[in-house]
Amino acid sequence: MAAKRRVVVSGSAGVIGRRVCAALVESTEADVVGLDRDEPLWVVPGVDDKQVDLVRADVDALFEGADVVVHLASALRADALDPAEGVEDQLLVHRVLDAVDRSGVGQLVMMSSAMVYGAWADNPVPLTEDAPIRPNPDFAWAVHKTELERMATT
């Protein structure tokens, strides 16, 4: 029998994180580890939840043995971008990307937003990932998410 895959989900305590963890437990033969600085909104049986602050924690140790990291954690809300939160969010992404590299994680899934494509009249319909990334410059949150995508793809 093959060993179970280990999937680590950052940002696992919120609504999206809880649903992703539940879907992973239901649809895979994986061991699921949830990481978040907050306590989970509800318990998902089969998820090993750990309350940690990824900006300060030993991320390498948390990712050790992981086959997949699903990075959902963010310090930002779409309705307000505090420059300090943006810096912390970039630090978090740097730490996650570096730890993924050092830990030998085979796959990284990172949450983004369709807002990185901007609200432009000439956007293709349907909008796909092949569309140019060009956020509206006056929407700081979308510009920030675009920078995080750039960091993840370089």
Describe this structure in words.
The protein has helices at residues 15-27, 59-63, 83-103, 140-153; strands at residues 6-10, 31-36, 47-51, 68-71, 107-110. The protein is of the alpha/beta class. It has a five-stranded parallel β-sheet, with helices on one face. Strand 4 (68-71), helix 3 (83-103) and strand 5 form a beta-alpha-beta unit. The termini are far apart. The model has no long low-confidence stretch (mean pLDDT 90).
* Count of β-strands: 5
Low-confidence regions = none
The backbone outline, from C-alpha atoms, is globular
Distance between the termini: 37 Å
Helix and strand composition category: alpha/beta
Give the biggest beta sheet. Answer: 5 strands, parallel
Using the CA coordinates, give the radius of gyration: 16 Å
What integer is the average pLDDT?
90
Portion in helices: 25-40%
- Physical arrangement of strands within the biggest beta sheet: 3-2-1-4-5
Give the topology string: H per helix, E per strand: EHEEHEHEH
- Tell me the quaternary state: single chain
Count of DSSP-assigned helices: 4
What portion of residues belong to β-strands?
15-25%
